[in-house]
Design a protein that fits this description.
The complex is a heterodimer. In chain A, the strands form 2 sheets. Chain A has a 5-stranded mixed beta sheet. A two-stranded antiparallel sheet of chain A has the order 6-7. Chain A has 2 domains: 102 residues, Beta-grasp domain (Ubiquitin-like (UB roll), Roll), CATH 3.10.20; 139 residues, Alpha-helical ferredoxin (Fumarate Reductase Iron-sulfur Protein, Chain B, domain 2), CATH 1.10.1060.10. Chain A is an alpha+beta fold. Chain B is mainly alpha-helical. Chain B is built from 4 helices and 2 strands. Chain B has a two-stranded antiparallel sheet with strand order 1-2. Classes of the chains: A alpha+beta, B mainly alpha. At the A-B interface, helix 3, helix 5, helix 8 and helix 9 of A face helix 1, helix 3 and strand 2 of B.
Chain lengths: 247, 133
């Protein structure tokens, strides 16, 4: 099995001793099939046990190991070392405060996710005795891509609007709100509109499109946001020009 | 007893360097920047209308000014930015206006293509109305 050496430049920050983050260089003998996460694990196990980062599944499912790799938001478990030349710069996800080393403070995203009610809110509760909520394949396909979101927050690290305007609810939360709005079993759109159709919702987005480009699961949050803008605009015109339609 | 954990999250300020972090951000800024040229061209049209209303002499002066090298450079730049703006927006329409027929979604090329076709038809109608043919 072939082995080569890679140089990692990792942003370190110890809140107890450091005033600000600094880069630390690690030289790692790696295998052809290694990803950045393997190299970090190797560093932690054999070189420097103080290095902190989040990870869990190592298979692009849990969404824990998002970080900036050469300035681009990536899952460390999906970024193959062989795809990079020279020194590989590893930093915590952009636009989030740094808790320690590569670990970020994600409370802001978790609170925003909660605000958009990313779960089914049936229009009318149905007794279990009446059986399951049925759905056609076409109704499922309408929202299925959004269900693939793993909450990895790469889209937030890619979005300059979120970086500049931290109040912005952001791509993943809006995409998930849209996912439930598009679900034929759901009746909670009005409740979610309060959050996502507000100024801090879709209207902060100027369609950079970076969120969809960096999504490791090929979800299209940028598309979801534009669709919410169009539907919210139609709502506004319907309400102001044809008020009799609204009971 | 668990040791007390001290927290001191470090916030990295965002600098204007983000524009150069990846070519996509630069492309986005060019698209945003294009509005300045489109806005300036619109003002030029309004100015032209005023000159038309002011009589034949003002109108001829306006047409003369349009033939100046600076005006030609401006028009070439404005055309370039207007094309870039239109093409990038039309190419994004499949994201904003997906159409589902039965189970499948209509291919993005068809939706963007329909916008280009509508653009061509409207342009043709305006040229016809203006007596260009």
């Amino acid at each position: 099995m072939s082995e080569r050496r890679v140089e990692l430049e990792v942003l370190r920050y110890n809140p107890e001793t450091d005033r600000e983050p600094r880069f630390q260089r690690y030289s790692v003998a790696c295998r052809e099939e290694w990803v950045v996460l393997d190299a970090l694990n190797h560093v932690k196990e054999s070189v420097d046990p103080t290095l902190s980062y989040r990870w869990s599944c190592h298979m692009a499912v849990c969404g824990s190991c998002g970080m900036m790799i050469n300035g681009e938001p990536k899952l460390a478990c999906k970024a193959f070392l062989r795809d990079y030349a020279g020194v590989i710069r590893v930093e915590p996800l952009a636009h989030f405060p740094i808790e320690r080393d590569l670990v970020t403070v994600i409370d802001d995203f978790m609170l925003k996710l909660k605000r958009v009610k990313p779960y089914l809110l049936p229009a009318q509760a149905k007794p279990i005795a009446e059986g399951a909520y049925r759905q056609t394949p076409a109704e499922l396909k309408k929202f299925k891509q959004y269900t693939l979101c793993i909450n990895c927050m790469l889209c937030y690290a890619a979005c300059p609007e979120y970086g500049l305007i931290p109040k912005y609810i952001g791509p993943a939360a809006i995409a998930l709100a849209h996912r439930y709005n598009q679900d034929s079993r759901d009746g909670g759109r009005d409740e979610r509109q309060e959050e996502i159709a507000a100024t801090e919702g879709v209207w902060e987005c100027s369609f950079v499109g970076a969120c969809s480009e960096v999504c490791p699961e090929h979800v299209d949050p940028a598309g979801a946001i534009q669709q919410v803008k169009i539907r919210s605009t139609v709502d506004w015109y319907a309400e102001h020009l044809m008020p009799w339609l609204k009971k | 007893m668990a040791e007390k954990v001290s927290r001191k999250p470090f916030v990295r300020e965002m600098t204007s360097e983000w524009i150069f972090r990846h070519p996509r951000y630069l492309r986005y800024m060019v698209r945003e920047f294009s509005c300045l040229f489109i806005g300036a061209y619109t003002l030029l049209m309004v100015w032209g209308l005023k000159q038309l209303a002011d009589g034949p002499q003002a109108w001829t002066g306006f047409l003369e000014a349009l033939r100046s090298p600076a005006s030609i450079v401006f028009h070439v730049l404005a055309l370039g930015f207007a094309l870039y703006h239109s093409v990038t927006w039309f190419n994004l329409t499949p994201k904003a206006l997906p159409v589902q027929l039965g189970e499948e979604f209509v291919a993005g090329g068809v939706i963007a293509g329909a916008h280009y076709a509508a653009w061509a038809l409207v342009s043709l109608a305006i040229l016809l109305a203006a007596g260009a043919f």
